[in-house]
Amino acid sequence: MTPGWSGQKSSNGRPIRLLLAGGGHAHLGVLKSWIARPPHGIETSLITSERYLIYSGMVPAWITDPAAAEDLRIDLVSLADRAGIDCIIGSVVGMDANQREVVLNNGERLSFDLLSIATGGEIDTSTLADLGPRLLPVRPMPDLVRRWPLVRDTATRTPGFRVAVVGGGAAGVELALAISSTLAGSCAAPVMLVSDTEALLPGHSSRARRLAQERLAHAGVELVEGHASATPDGLLLDSGRRIPAGCVVAATGTRAPRWLRNSGLQLDGQGFVSVGPDLRSQSHPHVFAAGDIASWRDRRGGRTVARSGVHAVHMGPVLAENLRRTLRDAGARLRVYRPRRRSLYLLSTGDSRAILSWGSVAMAGRWAQRLKNHIDRRFVREWARLGSGAKGMAWSN
Ligand SMILES: Cc1cc2nc3c(=O)[nH]c(=O)nc-3n(C[C@H](O)[C@H](O)[C@H](O)COP(=O)(O)OP(=O)(O)OC[C@H]3O[C@@H](n4cnc5c(N)ncnc54)[C@H](O)[C@@H]3O)c2cc1C
């Protein structure tokens, strides 16, 4: 199946329609590229469930310091506006890649010639759903940000109120430490971190793990190993232990959205969109995907890249360039996304310090948190400047 256009017209003579589904980090790269050089004769629309993209790197800092809210979100509407892109606030709930159609939550059907997907993933809360209102999943992140202040206020006012975080990955560790720091000195019970992975921080070095464990112990966060399921008043571990909790924060890893299942797209074993190193769908050349939604393999089909904001951001310029080339010539040669062998991660530990984790290197200190603040704040503020029309974007296509 090949894209059906030549030049800037589709086969039926109307302008080519490009749909950007989801306001994910990779689409920031497309917005920036379109602002710098708007493509002629292309109708581009961005569909995003929320006006603001929440920048996850800033969430732990915002939990410990609500004043950080101004650096928490990126305004997609103003960026789309500057890029001359029509911004539709709505959620994609279905898609037919063969018919080139996307379905929105209001029932509207949008056709496309070229589609790019950056909706991110969902949180797998299947074993925790029975918690009802006590469950606070980390995604959708805008919901987390809307609901957390009330949980915090309730926790600080209610003697023995326990927050349990489920998930031993980087997000779970950062959130447990940030929440523990915020609730310290209140009448809330100590925060608990429940992890069913053999070791904390999978994918990080043993030294990074040790540093995280030391920090959790120092902060009084109880680390519990086991697989958790929901009870009406908290968690039940596979060991039989019950953990009453007023709020369970689910940081249980990313799963693929269900709406992809009937899309016709080739998906990997876990339901994510299979793309090549050029971020193009393995089955449909007129579909691209990037960020957490994409399952990426290298040229030899061997390596997949970890789901992280770092990759989602770095995929942006490659995605933008490949969309541009495909719009000009459906059969154009495309750029390849080459992930760095090691990515730099800075994990906040809730005490004005952070753990720097880079391959086998791991260090902790206040300087690491200052570096994280600098990188994260600069990132969000540069998008704000671009959205407002001010000059000064640091990274280029
Ligand atoms: C607490 C926390 C801290 C983290 N810290 C880091 C970190 O420091 N470094 C790092 O590299 N990674 C970090 N991560 C991981 C990182 O958040 C993800 O890997 C990253 O957000 C993936 O980016 P994305 O653009 O693919 O998706 P997302 O960031 O999830 O963006 C998806 C966007 O699409 C929109 N959307 C979603 N579904 C739909 C739909 N159906 N229709 C329309 N729009 C939709 C959403 O509103 C959102 O704007 C952290 C994660 C968490 C939970």
Could you characterize the architecture of this molecule?
This protein is of the alpha/beta class and 397 residues long. It has eight helices and 27 strands. The chain has two domains: 5-49 and 90-121 and 256-339, FAD/NAD(P)-binding domain (3-Layer(bba) Sandwich), CATH 3.50.50.60; 124-252, FAD/NAD(P)-binding domain (3-Layer(bba) Sandwich). Strands 7-4-3-11-23 form a five-stranded parallel sheet, with helices on one face. Strands 13-20-14-15-16 form a five-stranded parallel sheet, with helices on one face. Residues 391-397 have low confidence and may be disordered. The protein binds flavin-adenine dinucleotide (FAD). The site of flavin-adenine dinucleotide has 33 residues, from helix 1, strand 4, helix 5 and helix 7.
